[in-house]
Amino acid sequence: MLIIHPFGRLGNNIAQILKCLSYSLSLEKPIKISLIRLKNKHPEFLNNLPEYLFNYDDNKNILDKFWKYNEYTNLELQEKAITMLKPFLNYNLNINDSIDFQNTLIIHFRGGDSMKGNHLINFKHPPYYFYKKIIEENIFENILLVIEDQSNPIIQKLVDNYKNIKITSNNQYEDFKIIMNAHYFVNSSSSFSSSAILFNNNLKKFYTSDGMHNYRKNFNNVNVIKYDLTNYYNKKFENGKEMLDFLLLEKDPFLI
After folding, report:
1. β-pairing, 33-34 with 2-4?
2. Residue 62: what pLDDT?
3. Which of 198, 162, 158 lies closest to 179, judged by CA?
4. How far apart are CA 3 and CA 6, in angstroms?
5. What is the pLDDT of residue 224?
6. Count of CB atoms within 10 A of residue 242's CB?
7. What are phi and psi of 45, to 5 degrees?
8. For the chain, give me the number of helices (H) and strands (E)?
9. Which of 104, 206, 217, 234 is the one with CA 20 to 30 A from 185?
10. What is the separation of C-alpha 70 from the centre of its chain, rounded to a whole number of angstroms?
11. Residue 192 and residue 176: Cα distance in Å, rounded?
């Protein structure tokens, strides 16, 4: 039996389930998977999941984080895993503010440790000019920033420059559900957003880049717009201040 051990936060653990599921599905006889530990870790969100998936048990208990099982997450296997998991997830928002998803661009910002020390350099959050280009090349009645906290200085700069922007910061489950319900969504450098978008049934436009966390999915009937941030992601930064200064640039310095 495969036993998934909780690792990190919700986005990481949803990715774990998909990778473990894909691995099990890659075998001739899918091995039984225990989801009990993850259900206990996220009871508010994963309460509808069964305690076990599949029936075949090879009598070997493997406790793992399944974080590095990328070789098993080809597109076909992950699509099967997404299809299996999707019916058990709760899409119903509990937050009071109603969101007009049909007329709102949703932008997610990862915060927390990703804005501190070496994490800041390693996460490579998209720069301000990435968001500026998206907002000014498209017309949206509303723009909603889904944030963990306000540690990313781009958040305040966007609020200062665009009058139709609002901010929402909820618990991780409500933010995950907002992304699952979005019609127009800007990805972030986070397994949280990249995991949530896999289960979205309403997505019309998806703004992203190859340098971000992008789990495999066949986005049928979705207009996927990829921005080339290759030079940015390849750029080396000496320290956090240099990185923060770059994040606030209004124009892409790599364009001639």
Report:
1. parallel
2. 93
3. 198
4. 10
5. 92
6. 13
7. -115, -35
8. 11, 10
9. 234
10. 16
11. 7
| Tally of structural domains, the chain | 2
Encoded amino acid at 156, one letter: Q
Residue 63: the pLDDT is 94
Sites in the chain below the pLDDT cut of 70? 71-73, 96-97, 213-216, 256
At 124 the pLDDT is 86
Its pTM stands at 0.91
The closest alpha carbon to 59, from 116, 1, 139, belongs to: 1
Residue 53: which region, alpha, beta or left (left: phi > 0; alpha: psi -120 to 50)?
A: beta
127 belongs to a structural domain: yes
Non-local (6+) Cβ contacts of 32 within 8 A are: 1, 2, 52, 53, 54, 55, 56, 57
- Whether 252 is in a domain gets the answer no
What is the domain extent for residue 140?
101-247
Measuring CA to CA, which residue among 77, 68, 64, 83 is closest to residue 24?
Answer: 77
Give yes or no: residues 37 and 156 share one domain: no
Verify that 49 and 158 share a domain, yes or no. no
